[in-house]
Amino acid sequence: MEGLTRISISLESALLDAFDRSNTAKGYATRSEAIRDLIRERLIREEEQSAAGEGVAVVTLVYDHHARELAARLIDKQHHHHDLVVSSLHVHLGERHCLEVSVLRGQAAKVRHLGDELLATKGVLHGEMTFTSGERALNRWR
């Protein structure tokens, strides 16, 4: 178990029981794995908020494709920032609505700016941006 440090924590019984039920439902083999994931999640969120270093984000947009020139505006914004757009996926949800998923990667502040710009585009009905860290940050926590 080289590189691992054993710690001890104190929790209320009700909190630990709820945590164990959640871990079982999610398929965690051990509490340690679940706690490691929670710690990484918090560190990634804090790093993303600092807007330093490399950022990776998934931007999900839902829009009515009949909205006047909306698809063209979204594509133009992505082409204008082609250095940040790694990949895009377009899904037809039905006759009127589309789902657009874009993976962005680059300087965290620029990634956030483009994601916010896409989400704020007039005609986007729903969307969200989810961040993760780049390779360097993830390797720091191994």
Describe this structure in words.
44% of the residues lie in helices and 28% in strands. The chain is α+β, with helices and mostly antiparallel strands and 142 residues long. The chain has a 4-stranded antiparallel sheet. The radius of gyration is 19 Å and the shape is elongated. It starts with 12 loop residues before the first helix and ends with a helix. 15% of the residues are buried. The model has no long low-confidence stretch (mean pLDDT 89).
Q: Summed up, what is this model?
A:
With 142 residues, the protein is an alpha+beta fold. 44% of the residues lie in helices and 28% in strands.
Profile the largest sheet. Answer: 4 strands, antiparallel
Distance between the termini: 13 Å
Q: What is the string of helix and strand elements?
A: HHEHEEHEH
Low-confidence stretches: none
Mean pLDDT: 89
Give the beta-strand count.
4
Strand order of the largest sheet: 2-3-1-4
Number of helices: 5
In terms of DSSP E residues, the strand content is 25-35%
Structural Rg: 19 Å
Query: What structural class do you assign from the helix and strand content?
Result: alpha+beta
Shape assignment: elongated
What proportion of the residues is helical, as a percent range?
A: 40-55%
